[in-house]
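**User:**
My hope is that you can spare some time for a protein that puzzles me. This is the protein in question:
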Amino acid sequence: MAVYELDKNEIAFPDPRGGDEDGLIAIGGDLSIDRLLLAYNYGIFPWYSFRDAPDIMWFCPMKRFVIIPGEAHVSHSMKQLIRSGKYRVTFNKAFDEVIQGCSKAQNRIEQEGAWLGEDMIQAYTELYHQGFAASVEVWNGDKLVGGLYGVTLGRAFFGESMFSLEPSASKLALIYLSNMMKDRGGTVIDCQLETPHLKSMGAKYIDYDEYLRLIHEDF
């Protein structure tokens, strides 16, 4: 299947249904706000090793791993943790700190294949300043101990990354995000890639057409 090379002077993407088995549909282009917004409108996201890849790589898998708002699984131990009041959860209070935590926690930035480098950080921070990205923060006292961030379009949240400095902090952030989105009429949380962590919390696969219906559903 064809993988297209994008023109930096033209903001456009090929039909994602023509990508390869891993969901790679295109390379090149840039991380401009307009290009990122167009990409997410079709479930396309950039993901590449910034040290190794000469060009940005754009993915759009045909099977999408998602959580439906309000359906995040809350284990007995997580219910106990929530009731304990040990942690405080906020929204959009420390986006810069969260994205830096996602980049550097557990020494991620130095690991092989690291993808959240300065170019990505700058691009998503600008999305946040323009109202198209959001963060969830988990605090132990005044210390940020976990969180997540992602892109927000319409009623959908496109998760990008999460981190924990203390056990279950990122799970707590996702539970609060799921419940908040349910209360506000959200339709889907895109988890992008399957992990045991996300699967244990109720994430499931849906096909691309159903995914598009959810991300384009009007209020």
Notes: The radius of gyration is 17 Å. The domain at 65-216 is CATH 3.40.630.70 (Aminopeptidase). The CA atoms of residues 111 and 181 lie 33 Å apart.
